Automatic annotation (TrEMBL):
Superkingdom in the source lineage: Bacteria
Taxonomic source organism: Mycobacterium shimoidei
One GO MF term: stearoyl-[ACP] desaturase activity
Keyword terms, alphabetized: Coiled coil, Fatty acid biosynthesis, Fatty acid metabolism, Iron, Lipid biosynthesis, Lipid metabolism, Metal-binding, Oxidoreductase
UniProt cofactor note: Binds 2 iron ions per subunit.
GO biological process assignments: fatty acid biosynthetic process
A Pfam family matched in the record: FA_desaturase_2
Residues annotated for Fe cation 1 binding in this entry: E75, E106, H109, E196
Stated name of the protein: Fatty acid desaturase [Modestobacter marinus]
Length: 337
């Protein structure tokens, strides 16, 4: 159940949740995962008299494989996400209706992605299953940073975090579809990214209503979220190395994060134009302006690192693969191709 200190805010925002849920249901266009899987390309694996996976069977580039698997692993952690938002938002009234609806829509993303990857033999299905087990075992909390510390302290933290996370996921899915350079994958990822965009709109507008209700409290949460922001996929083994490859491949990088995720959301909320932040909240808003400049610097540094990475790959021929870790004697060890 939600923390007692959040109950007033949950109650005050429930009419907004109901309104946004009804709008979401009106805007959402139903689609079926099975319609975007090329079933005619599929064939049995060894256990049923067929052939097990071989690397030569994949038609996706290294970048596309890494991005598709990373996206799938992010979706696979749905049990953790459902648990966290149910505990944060509660299961009563409009809040509970949204939690269940969101979970149902997110669940088909993982179903569709896995079916596509297995049917097309785009990646090793055995390693895919090992990685799924590992990722789900690790779990996830929305306010968890890379040190394992929790920074989400209230309902504001949760809905603000998910706003940025849903938009980032939408961008990542869409760019992954393009990176696959394959018509069916592109269509599938477009469907998934459309769902994620509607989820983002729900949380973005709910957050905006919360900012109007309690601007100072909201600003403290916004500052905490952006200063600690990490994508859900960071719990996937070797996330840093895979994130670099995804960034170098143009799927999701610091510039995309700043220009297509952080900046438009802050602009929509008029964070730097509002005059209702006072005291510590006003100071934290000023620090967000500093953060934006820091992100600009990070973008410039990334371009330099990207060029070095490309030169290194050209020189050595070594690249990160979708499955960097293997279970050996009960321990995870790094493997390179």
């Amino acid at each position: 159940m939600p923390d007692p200190q959040d109950l007033d805010l949950l109650r005050d925002l429930e009419p907004v949740v109901e309104k946004n849920l009804n709008r979401h249901l009106g805007m959402h266009k139903s689609w079926n995962p099975h319609d975007y899987i090329p079933w005619s390309d599929g064939k049995n694996f060894y256990a049923l008299g067929g052939q097990d996976w071989d690397p030569e069977q994949s038609q996706l580039s290294d970048v596309a494989q890494v991005a598709m698997v990373q996206n799938l692993m992010t979706e696979d952690n749905l049990p953790s996400y459902h648990r966290e938002i149910a505990m944060s938002m509660g299961m009563d009234g409009a809040w509970g209706q949204w939690v269940n609806r969101w979970t149902a829509e997110e669940n088909r993303h993982g179903i569709a992605l896995r079916d596509y990857l297995v049917v097309t033999r785009a990646v090793d299905p055995v390693e895919l299953e090992k990685l799924r087990i590992e990722v789900v075992n690790r779990g996830f909390s929305p306010g968890q940073n890379q040190q394992g510390d929790l920074f989400c302290e209230n309902i504001f933290d949760s809905i603000l975090y998910v706003t940025f996370q849903e938009l980032a996921t939408r961008v990542s899915h869409r760019n992954t579809g393009k990176a696959c350079n394959e018509k069916v994958a592109d269509q599938l990822m477009a469907k998934i990214s459309h769902d994620e965009n509607l989820h983002m709109i729900f949380y973005r507008d709910l957050s905006e209503a919360g900012i109007e209700l309690a601007p100072n409290k909201a600003m403290k949460s916004l500052h905490r979220v952006l200063r600690n922001f990490k994508m859900p996929g960071f719990t996937v083994p070797e996330f840093r190395r895979k994130a670099v490859m995804i960034a170098v491949g143009g799927v999701y990088d610091p510039r995309i994060h700043l220009d297509e995720v952080v900046t438009p959301v802050l602009k929509k909320w008029r964070i730097f134009d509002r005059e209702d932040f006072t005291g510590e909240a006003a100071r934290l808003r000023d620090d967000l302006a500093v953060l934006m400049k820091e992100l600009e610097v990070a973008c410039d540094k990334f371009e330099v690192s990207k060029q070095r990475q490309l030169e290194r790959e050209a020189r050595t021929g070594k690249k990160v693969t979708a499955f960097e870790l293997h279970q050996t004697a009960g321990k995870l060890t790094l493997s390179r191709r």
